[in-house]
Amino acid sequence: MKNPFHLAIPVNNLIKAAHFYENILGCVRGRSSDSWVDFNLFGHQVVCHEVKAQDNIKMKPVDGDDIPVPHFGVILNFDEFDELVEKLQKSSYKFFIEPKIRFAGKKGEQRIMFLKDPSGNALEFKAFKSLDQLFES
Questions:
Q1: Alpha-carbon distances, residue 12 vs 49, 55, 72 (angstroms)
Q2: 3-class SS at 18?
Q3: Which domain holds residue 22?
Q4: For burial by CB atoms within 10 Å, which of 2, 56, 72, 73 has the most?
Q5: Each residue of 21-78: pLDDT tens digit?
Q6: pTM of the model
Q7: How many CA atoms lie within 13 A of 82 on its CB side?
Q8: Which of 7, 124, 136 is nearest to 66 (CA)?
Q9: CA of 135: how far to CAs of 29, 85, 98, 121, 131, in Å?
Q10: How many domains does the chain have?
Q11: At 10, which CATH number?
């Protein structure tokens, strides 16, 4: 099986976006807050972050970090995640958000890190403690 992708997109109305993804596309809802919802899109993780028109920075708080929206990435296993961290550290690549654990001790516990490519696109790499919890709420 290929690793599932992760894509976070800005939406201007979270209720309408959730209705579309759940009721029109048939996606199952996963974790959520009052400003974001993640969905199982054919085995991939798509996260809708509500971004108001006046939000010109497009950073949204998630578990204590300001997360850029939009961003994309891939879900790795722990070994792949650790190998990538080591490779990036050896190359002295600057992390946008240093490797850390998000949602510690909760459903969906995961290792995460963020980078920016040379054009400023944000990339998130994550590894779940249990991939079975990818869409747990």
A1: 8, 10, 18
A2: helix
A3: 5-133
A4: 73
A5: 899 878 899 999 999 999 998 789 999 988 876 555 578 888 888 888 888 888 888 9
A6: 0.69
A7: 4
A8: 124
A9: 7, 24, 24, 25, 9
A10: 1
A11: 3.10.180.10
